[in-house]
Design a protein that fits this description.
mainly alpha; 2 domains; 3% strand; globular; 116 residues; 50% helix; 6 helices; two-stranded parallel sheet
Length: 116
């Protein structure tokens, strides 16, 4: 049986993901937050973030400070993902495409009331 392994995410790969997929989806003036894993901390990534989000990104090496290990101020980790998972799996998932569509549908259905 052949096993397929996902490629290691390097700073270059992470930068491509940001430029091609993530940043184009962000509204104007967004404050971007990331963790401090090595691919997120590469010089090319930090330079891109400094240019794209001047004074508006949070992470290791950023101008905006954010206390480490602060679960009380990162509610997405403790609420939103559980909410999404519960709603995604509220119906039987048939295949990977169905799963992707359910995730997209649930994310798009999240209202401001859910987030406050």
């Amino acid at each position: 049986m052949t096993q397929h392994h996902a490629p290691t995410v390097t700073s270059n790969i992470y930068l491509d993901m940001l430029q091609l997929y993530a940043v184009p989806q962000f509204p104007e003036g967004v404050i971007f937050q990331q963790n401090g894993t090595p691919p997120h901390y590469g010089n090319i990534v930090r330079e891109f973030l400094d240019t794209t989000f001047p004074q508006r990104w949070i992470g290791r090496g950023a101008v905006m400070a954010w206390p480490p290990r602060s679960p009380h101020i990162t509610p997405l980790d403790f609420y939103l993902w559980g909410y999404v998972k519960q709603h995604v799996y509220s119906e039987r998932i048939n295949d990977i495409n169905h799963l992707k569509q359910r995730i997209t549908d649930v994310i798009h259905s999240v209202t401001q009331d859910v987030l406050t």
